[in-house]
User: Fold IS3 family transposase from Streptomyces brevispora.
Amino acid sequence: MKPLIQQIFEANYRVYGARKVWRELHRQGHIVARCTVERLMRELGVTGAVRGKKIITTIPDSSVERAPDLLDRNFVAPAPNRCWVADFTQNAAMATAPPHWSVTPPGDRPGPC
Assistant:
């Protein structure tokens, strides 16, 4: 089965993943489980092409000294709802939307809440 998988993989420009190799095997009349094709492809060391591009937003430079913690941040809350922390991470889907969020502790909100 491994030579057949390798032949299908090579014949399709080395871009077919396990699902497409499995479907091609079925078209050729070789009935085999998809998990078996996945396992055999791992053993062969072949993988399909991966679409998309991983976005790396920050590459830290280990040779530069980090900025000091001027705010003396303490991330330990003495009780529930006392210490709020927000993390704004860049998201590719939100990269074009303007930021319009804010974090307000419950005691600072206007109204009855």
Observations:
- The chain has a mean pLDDT of 80.
- The first helix runs from residue 2 to 11.
